[in-house]
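Take a record:
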Amino acid sequence: MTTAQTVLVLAGLGVGLWAMHKVGQALTKVLEALAAVAAVFVTVWLLVKGVWWVGRQVVRRWRTSLTAAAVLAWLHWWGSLSLVITLTVVTAGLLAWRLLHRESFEPWAGRYLRAWWQRWMVYARRMPGWLRACGLAVADQGQPVTVQITPFRRTGVQPRVKPRRDQLPRVVGVRSGPSWDEVRVRLVPGQTPEDFDEAARALAVARGVARCQVRELAPDVVSIDFQRRDLLADPVPCPDLVGLGTLTGEDIDLRKVWSGRTEYGTDWHQSLRGGHTLHAGATGAGKNSFTWQPIVSIAPAIRDGLVRVSGIDPKGMELAYGRLIFHRYAVTSKDALGLLDDLIGELERRKCEFAGRLRDMPISREYPLELLEFDEIGALMRYIGDRKTREAMIDRVAVLNTQGRALGFTVRGYVQEPTKDTVPVRDLFPRRICLRVATKSHVGMVLGDHAYDRGAWANRIGESEQGVAFLFGEGIREPLRVRAGWVPDETIKDLEVFVTGAADGAGASVVALPTPVAASAGGVA
């Protein structure tokens, strides 16, 4: 290479280096400008996101936000000492209010304070762990498995991955009453309310309570209800007949008859018009309370002739103690058939009287409500008497259940074994009450297939809890636990005097029934 060529090459390299230097300076300025723009954009984006998050929290947790703002304003204007003194005085006042008049403290302040405490001190901290332990977190499918190989063995280890926020249901609110906590939870994609129904027992164990039931509030929101305290642990007293003496029969609302208390501490009313009720429970479960308490509550209507009570008592013991209360009474299967025939005859008479005129017959002294208390209904339909008598009895009960509602007939049956073989007309009772039963399958027979999964654990009712039962269906979206009022023997005898106006059975009237065509009547009054 000549000297001239060398000079040209060096000159070219110098020009190239100079050009690259200028390009580098230009790129540096561009990158610095882009970095500045990116920094500004990220800062603005984070600022907007932060403002949005703060605003969302303020709106969603407005009570906490207002409290924090009030505390900060107080500290700014009056200092911390006055705040401590004020909080001490308010706390002492609330404690005194709770001790002196808990009835007013609970609805006005107690439930709100307890709900706040339960949400932030209990459920916000522990509920995520309970949900994961009960299998209520949605996990990613196909998690990688790490294989560890040693000279002695080969093991596969799947790493434990903490669920993301969108994989774990979130607590959105807590309400707290005297005995229950209602925890509202928002579901995540991939879950259904039925998943929580199946995990109700596991959630109760995790919370350390006796009962837990799940209610669907929205397609993606459920309420997990925990029972902290059992308000039905003690027997429910029966109302005093003296207080009913001032009422007339017209004052009694037969569609809202006081029958006991609910698990929420409220009065339980049931209707004796417009439907028939089947009570199922093992021996000693307290079915007598469900028989006598409504009768006590409607005593003025019975006395004034607006309600006629008939009783079928195969054992001859349960209803016989209040024999004078019943307009008709039967013990044997033939007597029971005669009683049912008389009711059918009255039903036909009312049909002829009101057909084409009214769709729902009004209750009057001429046409009173006919209330049939059928104890041990399964015994007479399955075990006692000949086959023809049992079949005839089934037919007559079916007629009363299907045609009697609008004509003022109400049938209330009681059974120990609620199978379809024992009570063939079981499905004709729209209202069901399940007391303590022997097996889980009996709960489904009485209250429906999904009642147990939704918290109707009637097979777990204790033997010392006579009169406790579960209701489900016909207007009741979730299983409701109730306890019927306990009616002592003295009250039943006083009820006889109240209804008949005669002491020791003196002056009790005997109603003679016509002889039925299908079977002879005997022992019916």
